[in-house]
């Protein structure tokens, strides 16, 4: 298993764990969407663990949507600006931004490594 491929898998599992920690602190009105999102990350983790390289392509837009959604949600922006609930703010920043950026980077690098291996083996 490629280095960045493995990193992507670790990041996906970390995002799922962070999300499972964050769900009880969130708004109960949105719990259904939060659970679906966590199941998506778990499904991507399983697919990548089983060797489905195409799942890497889904990680990039999903992570971008998470970052954009968190940036456009006024309660999230207020929480990050005021740190009124420090634990919630740290979990939001870690899971909603830091890990998502790492997911985009590691997925992209894993895709590029897979493509370069295909080019070198076919030549």
Automatic annotation (TrEMBL):
<keyword id="KW-0472">Membrane</keyword>
<protein>
    <submittedName>
        <fullName>Uncharacterized protein</fullName>
    </submittedName>
</protein>
<keyword id="KW-0812">Transmembrane</keyword>
<feature type="transmembrane region" description="Helical">
    <location>
        <begin position="56"/>
        <end position="77"/>
    </location>
</feature>
<feature type="transmembrane region" description="Helical">
    <location>
        <begin position="31"/>
        <end position="49"/>
    </location>
</feature>
<keyword id="KW-1133">Transmembrane helix</keyword>
<feature type="transmembrane region" description="Helical">
    <location>
        <begin position="89"/>
        <end position="108"/>
    </location>
</feature>
<feature type="transmembrane region" description="Helical">
    <location>
        <begin position="7"/>
        <end position="25"/>
    </location>
</feature>
């Amino acid at each position: 298993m490629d280095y960045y491929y493995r990193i992507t898998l670790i990041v996906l599992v970390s995002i799922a764990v962070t999300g499972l920690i964050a769900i009880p602190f969130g708004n109960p009105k949105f719990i259904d969407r939060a659970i679906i999102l966590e199941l998506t990350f778990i499904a991507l983790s399983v697919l990548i663990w089983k060797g489905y390289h195409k799942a890497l392509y889904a990680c990039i837009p999903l992570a971008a949507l998470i970052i954009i959604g968190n940036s456009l949600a006024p309660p999230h922006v207020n929480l990050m600006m005021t740190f009124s609930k420090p634990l919630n703010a740290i979990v939001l920043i870690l899971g909603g931004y830091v890990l998502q950026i790492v997911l985009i980077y590691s997925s992209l690098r894993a895709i590029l490594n897979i493509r370069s291996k295909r080019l070198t083996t076919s030549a």
